[in-house]
Amino acid sequence: MAYARVVDELPLAAVPLAHALVHSSNGIHDNLRRWLDVALAQRAPTALGQPSSRAAVSVWHALQDSQASGLRLSAEADWALLHAIGLELATLEAMRFLLRVHVVTVQQWLPGATEAAQALAASVVVWPDLASTEAL
Fold first, then answer.
1. Among 55, 60, 67, 81, which is least packed by CB within 10 angstroms?
2. Is 87 left (phi over 0), alpha (psi -120 to 50) or beta?
3. CA-wise closest residue to 20 among 55, 62, 44, 48
4. Contacts of residue 15, Cβ cutoff 8 Å, sequence gap at least 6
């Protein structure tokens, strides 16, 4: 199952935050959400309701609102909290995980979507922190 690979590749520190994002995001089928819930809970304890999870969800939604409206990001305090407790990179990984879940869904259900996703992936800029870890 393609989703299992996405779950397995998620860094352990990002699992609780990804779990919170899965529960708060639109566009994930209920059966898939239940499967992700179990798979993520098996990898690490959940952190639903914890300040770090609430902050990650708030930043995720603020980014979506900012992109849609063109207005400035409205979650600076939440991002500052994540930075202060050292979870900013884990939060970014959790957000990437959620995007990968959506990509896998598209690839599985739309004809030609795999080629389109590969073309998009080829044009994506790699973050400096990922470039250094992939070289290892």
1. 67
2. alpha
3. 48
4. 40, 43, 44, 94
Could you report the per-residue pLDDT of 74-98, keeping only the tens digit for each?
Answer: 778 888 889 999 999 999 999 999 9
Q: pTM value?
A: 0.71
Q: Which alpha helices (DSSP H) does 44-122 contain, by range?
A: 51-69, 76-84, 88-109, 113-122
Size (the chain), residues: 136
Greatest alpha-carbon pair distance for the chain in Å reads 44
Task: Take residue 12 and report the two structure tokens written for it.
Answer: 């352990």
- Please determine, for residue 136, whether its predicted confidence score (pLDDT) is greater than 60: no
Q: Which residues contact 54 (CB under 8 A, 6 or more apart)?
A: 20, 78
Q: How far apart are the C-alpha atoms of 24 and 18, rounded to whole Å?
A: 10
Contacts of 92 (CB under 8 A, 6+ apart): 127
DSSP code for 71: P
Q: Where are the domains of the chain?
A: 2-134
pLDDT digits (tens, 9 = 90+) for 49-65: 688 888 888 888 888 87
